[in-house]
Amino acid sequence: MNKTEAHTFHIPVMGTGFTVDTPVKVAHFGISSAISLSDDFLMEKMREFYCLKLNRPFRAIPVETEDYRAKRITAYLNLIDEIVKEKFDILKKSALEKGSDFESYIDMLPDFSVLKRKFNQMANANGLRTEIVNWIRNNLTPGSIDVNIMTKVDKDNYRNNEKLPVEFNDAHAALRGFAMSNLSSSVILSAGVNTRLYSYFANFDDFFPDESGYVKKKILLKVSDYRSALIQGKFLAKKGLWVSEYRVESGLNCGGHAFATDGHLMGPILEEFKSNRSQLIDSTHDILVRSLKSKNRIHPDAPLQVKITAQGGVGTNEEHEFLMQQYQLDSVGWGTPFLMVPEVTNVDDSTLKLLGESKEDDLYLSNISPLGVKFNSIRGNSRDIEKMEKVEKGNPGSPCPKKYLIFNTEFTDRGICTASRQYQKIRIDGLDAKNLSAGEHEKEFNGIIDKSCICLGLATSAMLVNNLDMKGNGNGVTICPSPNIAYFSDIFSLKEMVDHIYGKINILNEIKRPNMFIKELKMYIEYLKERIEEFSIPVSEKQQEYIDSFHKNIAIGIEYYKDLFSNIKLRFEDTKATILQDLHDLEEELKNIKLPFPDLNPAQ
Fold first, then answer.
1. Whole-number average pLDDT of the chain
2. Angle between helices 68-93 and 40-53 (to 10 degrees)
3. Could you write out the DSSP letters of every residue in 280-321?
4. What DSSP designation does 275 have?
5. How many CB atoms lie within 10 A of CB 388?
6. C-alpha dihedral (114, 311, 477, 72), degrees to nearest 10
7. C-beta separation of 512 from 575 below 8 A
8. Residues in CB range of 432: below 8 A, 6 or more apart
9. How far is 367 from 103, CA to CA, in rounded Å?
10. 447 vs 186, 369, 426, 436, CA distance in Å?
């Protein structure tokens, strides 16, 4: 039976540790959130923490155990599932009690919620307690306990110096851990396409529909544009696998790793999904049915449910409601603002203070990630301070105990991490032999030491908050908020944040905040300028094509926004003039960017 979902927002995955146990804190209130499956070491520590806290038996799964990574993930997810179910059962039993979690559940629902209206009607009509209890049992649902896998973080693994089969790669093992768990939820696939991993899904029955069309474990693709969604959806459909949700994330105006598009902006991307939603569903359904028939599996007569959701930079109720209605979305993600809600995320006191005091200039796209992808950073985070102290002592780099990002084979047969002591020592030792000028030497040196151990840094805060053993981890915290954090300065309760999302209160600080689309547009123009500066002269033909395409895509996005905000009714009335002026100014800035090849210079 399809039950009405409680909320129109979800809490995306944030780092490896900030949302590692968020479902325990919010799922019983009907709020969906996501756990990263990257760090099985952290999950094992958190499983021990909760078992001790709740007087449950705990049996460790050491690294010597065969398939330990998948088994750790399964054990942790099963524990989280059990805790959420127990808390939700208690919540339902507390119905009609003053000050209960059930009262909080109802109170936090948006006023337009069908569930809230129906319950209030029954309560105001003095309905029989048994009728109300039965209604609660049949209609209320906990939030989904979703999981996130970065598809490209899929390194090979070894045992006794022998390379293990591909199914023991990191992402494959994480998928297996989720597949073998008791959860009925979604796996979010992010960071691009991994065809071997996608094919591996077909080994698990839970990803296929039953006679009623129910899929116990759903596939959710985090995508940057419609074309990518269509290609990936069809690829998976050929395996008999259905994508139940396409989640559009801003390429730059988000937290964590920033996977920039080629200048395609969020508004036009969402418009394309809206216009082609039926085509996306119908075309993948036809492929799915043919594939399932060929496998002699149950196949649905009608397309299964597909959700279109979005996230990245939203910060006001007006933006939230606009996204939901303008683009017919099923949910909107609120990530970074929840870093200021200790009830929801694991952020230590020092980092909370750093976030609360941050201004726009403190937030930037860094090069610290060993993945070689831009990473949202904040100036003054303790992991960067710790990193530079090691450099000053002549001992740059990290010991690399977790080895999740060991992909570089420049100097070794097996991959090593570019943030590791081993790699940075080799690179730094080799600088002298290159006979570089002082300026070139400094530039290359800074590029080497800039890389940071985010495997440790992203887990530290969760360990500090929960008083876990810090041995081998260090106290430095890496945190990766979106630029949106500059507009949220205080520490908030869960109820306050939810009330802000639904427009009951306003918790923004007094810093002038641009519209989310304008903020992303500014970031893309700055990103284009940086890319142009990175290219050496003369640029290659491929680089020329890239920059020209990027420039044109931004210009197309600006025209889209000009038309959108000029004609929009009953939305952004107080800010429309400012938005249109910002668009004009940014259009001029784009036109005045000097391209490194005269023939394509728009100013001429």
1. 94
2. 40
3. HHHHHHHHHHHHHHHTT----SSPPP-EEEEESS--SHHHHH
4. H
5. 13
6. 70
7. no
8. none
9. 46
10. 38, 11, 14, 14
Give the pLDDT mean for 375-384. 96
pTM value? 0.95
- Three-class secondary structure of residue 195 per DSSP: helix
Q: Which of 244, 250, 225 is nearest to 330 (CA)?
A: 244
Nearest 5°: CA angle at 570, between 564 and 571?
A: 55
Beta-bridge partners for 309: 247, 331
Alpha-carbon dihedral 206, 150, 18, 32, rounded to 10 degrees: -40
CB atoms within 10 A of CB 426: 16
Does 399 sit behind a cis peptide bond, omega within 30 degrees of 0 on the bond before it? no
- pLDDT tens digits along 231-286: 999 999 999 999 999 999 999 999 999 999 999 999 999 999 999 999 999 999 99
User: Which residue's entry shows tokens 């004609």?
Assistant: 567
Give the CB-side neighbour count of residue 428, counting CA atoms within 13 A: 21
Average pLDDT over residues 384-398: 95
**Dmax over Cα atoms in the chain, in whole Å?**
86
pLDDT at 474: 81
> Which tokens sit at 582?
């910002």
Which tokens is 26 given? 């919010």
Residues of the chain with pLDDT > 70, as a percent, come to 98
Closest CA to 579 of 483, 510, 514: 514
What is the distance between the alpha carbons of residues 8 and 498, in angstroms, rounded to a whole number? Answer: 11
Contact 41, 17 (CB under 8 A): no
Tell me the two tokens of residue 1. Answer: 């039976």
Q: Which residues contact 564 (CB under 8 A, 6 or more apart)?
A: 267
Question: How are beta strands 9-11 and 32-36 bridged, if at all?
Answer: parallel
Q: Are strands 158-159 and 162-163 parallel, antiparallel or unpaired?
A: antiparallel
Q: Contact, 537 vs 270, CB < 8 A?
A: no
CA distances from 108 to 317, 341, 360, 455 (A): 14, 15, 30, 35
Query: 30-59 burial by CB neighbour count: b if 16+ within 10 A, else e?
Result: bbbbbbbbbbbbbbbbbbbbbeeeeeeeee
pLDDT at 578 over 60: yes
Residues found in the chain: 604
Q: In which residue are the tokens 């508004």 written?
A: 267
Which parts of 360-446 are beta strand (E)?
363-366, 375-378
DSSP 211: T
Token pair 């049915």 is at which residue? Answer: 289
How many Å apart are CA 483 and CA 360, to the nearest integer? 7
Q: β-pairing, 145-150 with 158-159?
A: unpaired
CA distance 228 to 269: 11
Q: Could you give the C-alpha distances from 23 to 277, 404, 431, 564, in angstroms and in order?
A: 30, 24, 48, 37
Sign of CA dihedral 391, 472, 37, 352: negative
Q: Which two tokens stand for residue 116?
A: 């809230």
